Amino acid sequence: MNEDQPSVENGCVLWSNGMDLFKDAAERNNFLPTGLEGIDMLLGGGLRKGHLTEITGQSSSGKTQVCLYSASHVAARHMGVVLYLDTSNSFSPSRIAHIVDELPISLIKEPKDMRLKRVMSSIVCESVFDVFALFEVLDQLEASMNDKVNSGGNKICLLIIDSVSSLLAPIIGGKNSQGRSMMISVAMILKKLADKHNLSVLVTNHTVGGNGAPKPALGESWKAVPHVRLMISRDHGSNMYTATVLKHTLLASGRHMKFVVP
Ligand SMILES: Nc1ncnc2c1ncn2[C@@H]1O[C@H](COP(=O)(O)OP(=O)(O)OP(=O)(O)O)[C@@H](O)[C@H]1O
């Protein structure tokens, strides 16, 4: 084995020296915008490439809105292709069209009809209704990402799963250890894809326990998975929302920022 190279086994890097980690952090220090100013400011630029970001919150707290905004802004700003895995028919092309239509001309310098066509063709939406379909899609994604590395094709830069909890929560109840190991496999595949292909992964996780303090549905085993976990909530009867950091590699938990969904 070459002493300067990290050893690679089944595509996983087993060790890295400090200089590798330093270069890696500097090179990967780039973000994809969510297009929601408060969230982008809170996260130092948006969704970090190479990381898995989780949005959690109660029903109607705005999780899908964050996904739709992120997909629209990333596609509109020529950052790459977005793969949107929709688990509950919440993907809304008309909402995307509305978001793209509202983008200022100073940000996207092209006629509105061309912009919409381009954005729509840069967002690939796929319905995924159970964990087995999810494994299949992720498997195909990995194969196509490996091909794109070799062929230099147009790369996916953002993978969205709205919501990952609706696929995983049904299989982890009770003493179902097989369900739990499937959940951990999904986590490992997502993090490996993010790391190996420098893509940003955005997932949503609904909350449970409405009366007291609502908690993210996927519990303790999943808690360690996301690099960043944001809790969002909607201010009653307004279009004002609050994002609060529950977990972050650099920021203290509890930091929060308001954002508006126009
Ligand atoms: N197409 C739309 N156009 C305008 N506003 C919308 C649209 N869809 C949803 N909203 C508004 O955004 C709010 C947040 O909805 P969203 O679907 O993002 O919540 P969520 O957290 O994903 O909910 P759930 O967990 O039930 O899927 C809703 O209360 C609704 O008022």
UniProtKB/TrEMBL annotation:
Q: What does this protein do?
A: Involved in the homologous recombination repair (HRR) pathway of double-stranded DNA breaks arising during DNA replication or induced by DNA-damaging agents.
Which InterPro entries is this protein grouped with?
Answer: HRR_RAD51_Paralog, P-loop_NTPase, Rad51_C, Rad51D_C, RecA_ATP-bd
A GO molecular function term, named singly, is: ATP-dependent DNA damage sensor activity
> Biological process GO terms, please?
DNA strand invasion; double-strand break repair via homologous recombination; reciprocal meiotic recombination; telomere maintenance
Pfam short name (any one): Rad51
Q: Does the keyword Phosphoprotein apply?
A: no
**Where does the protein end up?**
Nucleus
* Listed name of the protein: RecA family profile 1 domain-containing protein
Q: Does the keyword DNA repair apply?
A: yes
Q: Which family does it belong to?
A: Belongs to the RecA family. RAD51 subfamily.
